[in-house]
Amino acid sequence: MANNVPLLDNEEPLDFGEEDLPKGRLKHPVVTTFHLLFRTAALVVYEFCGIFSSSFIGPFIFIVVLLSLDFWTVKNITGRLMVGLRWWNYIDDEGQSHWVFEAKKGGLQGRVTKMEVRIFWVALVAFPVLWSIILLIAVVFSRFQWAIIVVIALTLTGSNLYGYVRCKLGKSDSISQSFKNMAAGLVQRQMVSNVTSMFTRAPPTATPSSTV
């Protein structure tokens, strides 16, 4: 059974540069390229492998390798350098699994660029959405054999998405607690609005009864 470890601030400096870059330039162009490379390649191979081969095993192995490379790269490198976030899992001496979600302590100004942050999050969210659409298409057209690949892709890309969302939103509260607080705030505002309207509403005016 996995136990969640509260999000920790990283006390040791991550390997960020400190120099400023012109607006629109990438601070880590190679890292940004690899953030997109493997997941894009896996998607392209999935879509067009039928043109070059009628086999299933070969494309299956190739796509899974690309997805595994993408998972490792995004989890261990691109998130740390592009947005200052990091997550991992470890097993303690008692054999229990623990999840750790960390965010870079302090601001990221001058260490990453807005373009890199935008590219990171767009790619992180877009690919699970694309794989979800592909899974729906595979199920509708009864391509259950290929749906296995899509499920693997969703598992790996979705794991990174979940981990980094936990790092981003879970710094003070867990995601579930954040949503609970949001819902409670909405209910509280609605109650205050209802009570206010009760006292500010004009009383109905009585209409004089007409006499015959």
Automatic annotation (TrEMBL):
Subcellular locations according to the entry: Membrane
Record family assignment: Belongs to the TVP23 family.
Single GO biological process annotation from the record: vesicle-mediated transport
GO cellular component: Golgi membrane
Annotated transmembrane regions: 43-72, 119-140, 146-165
Tree of life domain: Eukaryota
Signal peptide segment: none
Keywords: Membrane, Transmembrane, Transmembrane helix
Designated name of the protein: Golgi apparatus membrane protein TVP23 homolog
Keyword DNA-binding on entry: no
Organism annotation: Scylla paramamosain
Membrane topology category: Multi-pass membrane protein
Main location: membrane
